[in-house]
Amino acid sequence: MSKFDSYFLMKDADVIEYAQLKVPQKEWDVATMQSKEIGDGNLNYVFKVTDAKGHSVIVKQAGPVARISEAMVLDTDRNRLESEILILQGSLAPGYVPEIYDFDTTMSACCMEDLSDHMIMRTAMLQHKIFPKFAEQISTFMAQVLMGTTDVVLDHQKKKELQRKFISPELCDITEQLVYTEPYNDERGQNNVYPPNADFVKEKLYGDQALHLEVAKLKMDFMTRAQSLIHGDLHTGSIFINEESTRVFDPEFAFYGPMGYDIGNVIANMIFAWCNGDAYGESEFCAWVETVIKDVINLTMEKLEQYYDEHVTDTMAKTPGYKEYYMASILADTSAVTGLELIRRTVGMANVKDITTIPDEKARVRAERICITAAIDYIKNRDDKHCGNCFLNTLKDAVKAVDGQ
Ligand code: SR1
Ligand code: MG
Q: Is the pTM of this model over 0.90?
């Protein structure tokens, strides 16, 4: 019998014992072990356990309610889902996710590789750091995991088993509400609208029926198109980075959905980074982000296409012209989700520090308007974004439009 035979929410002292039990291969120096809760996400508890001999591990535990709101009751089984997906992603894209040492469905906790030699990418973006290998690395990760889990490539029965295994209705519901519904109507009164932009948001988001129609189409598509095993929350807070390496974590929102959801999340969060850099006059950083926006689109599409050519198994997907049709739909989804993520992080319940920490009121108003203006174009004109430059031009046009107002 151990104290971890039934679920409870752990504190630091418990986590120290837990790490000894679950990760004995670390040969812990028990007397000097310490634990610190380092989580700053919206849902879970994340502890870093260390000892004086340089051993360390990350322990992540799912609580029964979200950290961001106790009213959000969530199945703690999401921790298993997350661990199993990281293991699967690691097999499809080796070296791009943290190693999982153990996961435990009783405590809804997992023990994983400590990536303290990396930074959380959003934190690095707020410090305007540049990572020349990022576009190459994230595009490889996305191409291998996203195309590697499609019906184009996988045996269809195996794909359906994965689809059945990796689904969390509650987490999908969060996305359906926070990304695809509330930013357009504030139906639960939980949007965070920056007061100086209240009228702008009313007119551009709450009042635009044509926009609502496009978002309705996209929402139903998100809920019904089981294309790839997507990460489901691939923002810069779900990426660890350093000069040499990019590691993706926190895939608890993963399920079978349109792959453009992940690619669009990466692009939107680079645009938030750009807006922050721009507000601080960091021109070198912004120039790098612009290159990343272009390269992530171009490289991801190239690599998806190459993966398709090399691994396609479905007979009908080999029909001339089908691949081009499929790729065009991915680009359109990517554009739409870039817009949806830009909007929901600007006016919705879960915001991003890139925007909320811009101290000057005028600069923040401008940054938010740039995001919203670009976003509407990414959504409404999603079929016209055919390359990396098109994505960048939408941002540049939004800057011009806002500065000309
Ligand atoms: C209630 S959770 C709010 C947001 O945080 C997560 O990172 C997801 O992006 C979710 O939408
Ligand atoms: Mg998260």
A: yes
The per-residue pLDDT for 68 is 86
Asked whether residue 178 falls in the same domain as residue 41, the answer is: no
Please give the distance, rounded to the nearest whole angstrom, from the Cα atom of residue 262 to the centre of ligand 1. 14
pLDDT for 95 equals 97
55 and 183 together in one domain: no
* DSSP per-residue string spanning 327-359: HHHHHHHHHHHHHHHHHHHHHSSS--HHHHT--
**Which is the closest atom of ligand 1 to the Cα of 72?**
1
Q: Check if the beta carbon of residue 228 is closer than 8 Å to that of residue 256.
A: yes
Count of beta carbons in the 10 Å neighbourhood of residue 133: 13
- CA–CA separation, 195 and 128 (whole Å): 27
Domain boundary among 112, 139, 163: 112
The residue among 321, 329, 326, 300 whose CA lies nearest residue 152 is 326
43 CB near ligand 1 (under 6 Å): yes
Residues 43 and 74: beta-carbon distance below 8 Å: yes
Supply the residue whose CA is at minimum distance from atom 8 of ligand 1.
233
Domain span including residue 16? 3-112
pLDDT, residue 69, reads 87
Which of 43, 44, 265, 272 is the pocket-test mutation for ligand 1 (most atoms within 8 Å of CB)?
Answer: 43
Task: Give the model's pLDDT for residue 405.
Answer: 79
Query: Which residues of the chain have a pLDDT value below 50?
Result: none
Let me know if 261 is exposed, middle or buried by CB neighbors in 10 A (0-12, 13-18, 19+): buried
The tens digit of pLDDT for each residue in 190-223 reads: 999 999 999 999 999 999 999 999 999 999 999 9
Distance CA 299, CA 389 (A): 12
